[in-house]
Design goal:
Number of helices: 3
Radius of gyration: 13 Å
Helix content: 10-25%
Number of strands: 3
Order of helices and strands: EEHHHE
Distance between the termini: 9 Å
Structural class: alpha+beta
Shape: globular
Strand content: 25-35%
Largest sheet: 3 strands, antiparallel
């Protein structure tokens, strides 16, 4: 991930129960494509990537705020978080 620092900013949260949890997050990526170095990791196929427009991001401000605040997500307790910058 070190090579991506000048291209991406991201927040990942682990939420739910300690034995049954889910990963959720968002990434802001410079440019129109996901950098190849981000796609060259063993578990990349486990994630669902969705590109959104600035208008959609504006409508999702409350959701993004939850990620940044590291609060409960979709009614599930935040167990851990990581900010990539």
């Amino acid at each position: 991930m070190e090579a991506n620092r000048k291209y991406v900013f991201g927040v990942m949260l682990m939420h739910g129960e300690p034995t049954q949890h889910k990963l959720t997050g968002f990434w802001v990526i410079r440019g129109d494509e996901i950098p190849a170095s981000m796609l060259d990791v063993p578990d990349v196929e486990l994630y669902e990537w969705t590109k959104i427009s600035w208008e959609e991001a504006e409508a999702s401000k409350a959701k993004i705020g939850l990620y940044l605040a590291e609060e409960d997500v979709d009614g599930q307790t935040c167990l851990d978080s990581k900010i990539f910058k």
